[in-house]
């Protein structure tokens, strides 16, 4: 795993965004695996900036998001579909029918997981996966567990995750407790992985990169991938 320490959000956006832009230019129909959360926002800003400058074309790009809350409709302001539209898709020339986010309102979440796996397979897997990391080392919504997950799954969020997510909701009772997430196996299948983390994640990033590979720290599995770049913002 390669670690790049950046000074601030702007540098994070420029460097991680630059890597994604390079991947799109090398393969204009790339399948990008995308993440939500606070940390990727400057990365998306950079992609929008490059598009506005005429340096990036998303017309053939396909995207597949890591996760979605169960119980939130796509038009809910805190749904990850809504996040992606607002922070990226509405500002670039992507064909929205080529953008995939799990359906949090699916009647049968297990069937939705299978449908999402079929989407990932149809795209030929992920070319570049953008990841954040949870305070407990989760990637996507793969929380600490006894074993690494393989494919898309319905999960109960860890208490630490529910607490961290509470800042986006009016009251604690509104914070979703379940989600659909791409599996660790799906993430590991990506050709290239870019993980972005803020200064508050320094310790968990260090444990994930340098500690034992264990499903108790899901991000530690990335030590077994041959092309991972971790960007962390210096305190
Ligand atoms: C979001 C996701 C999560 C976040 C993680 C970090 O799609 O899969 O794993 O990447 O919770 O979130 P931030 O960047 O808000 O600290």
Which series of helices and strands comes N to C?
A: EHEHEEHEHEEHEHEHE
- Unreliable sequence segments: none
Question: Kindly, what is the distance between the CA atoms of the first and last residues, rounded to a whole number of angstroms?
Answer: 21 Å
Would you state the CATH class? Answer: Alpha Beta
Textual characterization of the structure:
With 235 residues, the chain is of the alpha/beta class. The protein has a single domain (2-233), classed as Rossmann fold (3-Layer(aba) Sandwich). It is 31% helix and 18% strand. It contains seven helices and ten strands. The chain has helices at 9-26, 41-52, 80-87, 109-122, 159-165, 184-188, 202-210; strands spanning 2-6, 31-34, 62-65, 67-69, 99-100, 128-131, 153-156, 178-181, 192-197, 228-233. The strands form two sheets. The chain has a seven-stranded parallel sheet, sandwiched between helices. A three-stranded antiparallel sheet has the order 4-8-7, covered by helices on one side. Strand 2, helix 2 (41-52) and strand 3 (62-65) form a beta-alpha-beta unit. The protein is globular, with a radius of gyration of 16 Å. The two termini are 21 Å apart. The chain binds fructose -6-phosphate. Fructose -6-phosphate binds next to loops.
